[in-house]
Amino acid sequence: MPDRRSPIQDFLELIHARYADFREGEVATYIPELANANPESFGICVATADGFVYEVGDSRQEFTIQSISKPFVYGLALDERGPEHMFTKVGVEPSGDAFNAISLHKTSGCPLNPMINAGAIATTGQIGASPPEPCFERILEMFSRYTGHAMHVDEAVYESESLTGHRNRAIGHLLRNFDVLEGDPTAAVDTYFRQCAISVNCVDLALMGATLANQGINPLTGTRAIKDTHVRSVLSVMASCGMYDFSGGWIYNVGMPAKSGVAGGVVAVLAGQLGIGVYSPRLDAQGNSARALQVCRELSQAWQLHQFNPPFCAHTSRRMRCTGEERHSSRIRHPTERACLGEHGGQIHLFEIQGNLAFATVEPIIRDVVRCTGRRGVILDFHHVTGINHVASQLLADLADALSHQGTAIFFTSTQQLPLLRQEVGSHLADASVIDRLFRFRSTDAALEWCEDELLRELMPAGPLTVNDLRLFEIASGLADEELGVFSGLITRRPYAPGDYVIRRGDEATSLFLVTKGIVGVWLGDHESGKRVASFSVGTMVGEMAFLDGARRSANVVAEGDVECAVFELEDFNRLLESHPQLHTTILRNIGVSLATKLRKVNEDVRILIAERQ
Ligand code: GLN
């Protein structure tokens, strides 16, 4: 049996053992039922933003959520009523008061924040208030989206608080007095008591935290628990007010938005990374679980979870950068075109981006693109991008817009896995032609081929070749006039319509083809459904490999548009050995040279691939 122990699990167990004998604080008794809790209970759970759960101790022990419900219900109120409405009811300023303080704004009567009881009761009063509906059900449903299972109320704790919660009732009436609560304040307070008595365990709390860490989506069920735009609002009030009058000390030392409850639970969240749930019923003077506080402080220090630790991200997003001088498309071109691209390919810039794109990671890319000198074409390859946020998408859209209007052709390739990018660019840019062009090519190779074609069109306006002049083909290099005459006599011209097969995979090789007009594509598998791996321009030779080794054709070659080839038969070539041995030798050497050039190109591509991986 392999040892499956994880250093993360080991560390949680170490911390649990270290605080097993920590007995500071008192169990809450003002809600009589809470006094029955076992003061020794102690559980810890860490859930990652992708839903992996580590747990130790009494992590499945049930207890009531109490005040930990407050930020989550606030999130629900934001979803249901919107932030503007909620601002008219509850502020977001830390009060520095105890959780049960009657601290209302001097003139408006609004509670200072949703984390103290007054703010929480005002918030609960907004759930389902318009149109009227059973609002507690909505709260319970919301919690089950966070935890991934049906939730229930601990009726004994509810009864106990309902019988004794006079102070909260008083707060409810004060809120009614200031019209913060509009309806019957006893209903809002009763719903608040019920929400506080929802039964949870450490794993539930950690998953609730992980859901907030995961932009509001429960990582195990994939269910959205809160709108993504409200996650940061919830985390903000947790960060500034979540631990009552210890909130400043907490964010200073632990550095994670968190919320505690009088039953002894604490939830802490590090956005993008994890949620933590701790349970231990003994409370310190501020009403926070004394042991949970130590655990969170230790975890934060050991794993560097403080949210103000600087992230290491900015310059990790550029995976590879090169120009069209260094990297060529899979199009096989005539030597004169190759020479032209070798000289001027520096005007084409290719960037491979990787990782998560947010402001700090997209900014260096934008900076590099803007600085490229003499740019005619820019290709951004998103194949290795794992995620992108709104702002990164919009900045890239603005970049594309600006470059397009300056006459640079810019392409975003391999964006199939990033629907948000397309969507954001689509809604951000007014010019539909810019958008169409931007996403025109799925693959970088196709975009590179297009950029090369454009550059050649501009730099060699007359075209590289007179198609009828066989002398311009590498195969005829060094032939005397008389030899060229013999060679030309053996050539037959063959036209092809778009989509016609020039060569079929598996066929016997009986001829080689000189492309005298148009472009032919090389396909693995069927034309259209297979993969286009290369293409050949005018002035190049196709099919010479099988011509030399006699093997069957290894790929399909298909006409792209109207094509004409000069066809040279293997039989005729073989006959030259007898009739014109010198000509035969020259042609054979030229074929060898052409193959060597192709091999060199492949070597160069492989070199780039290997260099990338080192
Ligand atoms: N139900 C509790 C109360 O209102 C919640 C307080 C808390 O957890 N801090 O008193």
Descriptive overview:
- The protein is α+β, with helices and mostly antiparallel strands and 614 residues long.
- The protein has 3 domains: 7-303, DD-peptidase/beta-lactamase superfamily (Beta-lactamase); 318-459, Transcription Regulator spoIIAA, CATH 3.30.750.24; 470-612, Sandwich (Jelly Rolls), CATH 2.60.120.10.
- The protein is built from 22 helices and 20 strands.
- Strands 11, 15, 16, 17, 18, 19 and 20 form a 7-stranded mixed beta sheet that branches. Strands 3-2-8-7-6 form a 5-stranded antiparallel beta sheet.
- Helix 2 (69-81) runs parallel beside helix 4 (117-124), helix 4 packs across helix 7 and helix 15 (390-405) crosses helix 16 (419-428).
- The model has no long low-confidence stretch (mean pLDDT 91).
- Bound molecules: glutamine.
- The site of glutamine has 11 residues, from loops.
